[in-house]
Fold each of these.
Amino acid sequence: MARSVKKFYTGKVKTEWNRLIQDAYHKLELDTTLYFLKKYLPKKGLILDAGGGPGRYTIDLAKQGYDIILLDLTPANLEFAKKQIKKAKVQNKIKGVIEGSITDLSKFPNNTFDAVICLGGPLSHVLDKKKRDKAIFELIRVAKKGAPVAVSVIGRLAVLARAVKIFPEEIGLPHFKKYRDTGDYPGQFGFTASHFFLPEELKNLFAKKKVKILAMAGLEGIGSNLQEKVNQLAKNKKRWSAWLETHYKFCTHPAIIGISKHQLIICKKL
């Protein structure tokens, strides 16, 4: 699994770097995540960006004054991130750029970080159920008592809806039935190996740990899988402002979390 994911993202570094800013629709994931991070992160401190890819959140949070350690599975992501960190002139806030997996954070002692983030779906790329649970344990373990832990994953219902829209010919094939019924996607059909989450599944995984769940949100919200329409709406400032107000009003609704392409959970370590 790790080799497959690493190979996939090695060839997608620039794509992943640009993914969250390519248009208004994708920027909803970035902006909604940052909205909730602003609400729950401490005012200052050391943050672990686990599975942080080419460093989009690392650099944004460094600009806000946080100290950051970036960890990712893919060396190509980390090399690209180093260049972007230098370009953004935030080298003094970056305390490490480290190759590693979210399933094994043993290089960090217990209670190291003032906050831990794992955003964009790294947990979705851990197919083994026991390793997913281990990853969550590790993300919580390295956080200080009282620290927030923020994780976003890829939502199963949004993937099913996308199949209707984009890949109807795949509906009914064995791999479709597999991710429909279990959430597990083998990775041979245009995307890397992934586990797609139902919101109750994500919630239950964290509820069993020593944390208090602070918030859950659907990052694309009501507009999930409506990329073309959302981007058209963004061209009209008045309508876009009203839509963003609507988006934030309902993005924490259980139904909206369920249909969103990316689902965010934020917890506090007890």
Amino acid sequence: MSTAPVREAESPAAPRALIVSLFGLYARELGGWLSVATIVRLMADLGVDEQATRSAISRLKRRGWLDAEKDGRTAGYRVSADALAILAEGDDRIFGRRRATADDGWLLVAFSVPESERDQRHRLRTTLARLGLGTVGPGTWVAPGHLDEAVLGALDRGGLRQFTDVFRATHLSSRPPRDTIAAWWDLDALQATYADYLRRFSAVAERWPDGPVDDAEAFADYVPAVTAWRRLPYLDPGLPLEALPEDWIGLRAEALFARFREHLAAPAAAHVLGALRAREQKMSV
């Protein structure tokens, strides 16, 4: 099985982000643990050298994403419990993504944090921004109504629920929905981000035939495409199409990502399994 370098058409993702993708896409299906040697091998297949990989692993460990764990005498890392919860949340947002409709209504999050706990105010704002909520005004954030479980779950995990009141709401403003959405989210910046994804990965998708593909090459293209896509369903939390500009570029980007999943996900996973088998055979010799 050949090893494929990262293509020039892709702007390489940060090693740390690629490692998160490796654990999110593959390690959980394999018990949540990967040896250091396997991580280094797979990252090399993505064009990242060993030093950069080990440095990224150390940063993820310090941030509480990975826990060091040995399997016998083999050093490796396991996804932490907190990271598993975030990855599970990401599965729904990234792979189970759906767009809101007018019938979903809205979720309003109002918060008030005492001055004595101002650090919690920063954590709260960071959490709401990470989830893709828009800002209605100081202390009031908004999301499509279908994200209620994701928002409440994140607030609970962060110990932030006590500072918030969460409401279901119906929008009754006389302003057109498109004007309202544009006031709550920076749609120009969002369009530009979608356009950048299309610019980076459209040419990559065009290289692939309709028939069988090489596993290693599929892996080298699929993981960066997923890594770059991961943040987009958070920046755009499934905003309803009727409230977005006509010919919303996000639909083209979604179709491109779906094409990557349909065509490359299986051979990319086969490459990872092949790398694990090769490692096991080497250790048994």
Amino acid sequence: MTLFSDPACPFCHRVRIVLAEKGIAVDIVDVDAQNLPEEVMDFNPYGTVPTLVDRDLRLWESRIIMEYLDERFPHPPLMPVDPIARATARLFMYRVDQDWYQLMGRIIKGNRNDDIAQARKELRESLIVTSPVFGAKPYFMSDEFSLVDCCIAPLLWRLPILGVEIPPNATAIHQYMKRIFDLPCFRHSLTEIEREMPHETARR
């Protein structure tokens, strides 16, 4: 099994967290998402990372890869068994991508200062409004670490480099971040580039 991964990409980071949590033996090949080798282009018609190659199987899109890994390597499980709970978890992941990752994309790729500032403001406010949800259970709306947490964690780790600061009184978010960032699977998933990124808990 081989994962083609950009060491700075949050979508690749998600998959690396899953691999680390499950202890899956995999060759991780670091690539530049803006200058992918021909090999990746041959495996993935969209020319994106993460791209997973497992024998004759080629997968792309981080959530598809994450669910495949969870089903192929069922221990520890990262999705609920109950169909309703599974569907709810998928909705959470969809909303994280639509609401938070799209704003992150606007911050990173924006070419107008006013749009970048607006995206920062919207992301900060959306996270703060969600603060009670972060505190409702040990993990995001769950008593167990799940794929939803794997989706959220890379974005929260990158908040300082995005210029988004969570106020100290949003205690539930800060506690959630510390809980997630202290997990062995998260620590193990970090690349050298990601380890050098400042993060919220380091400043508190």
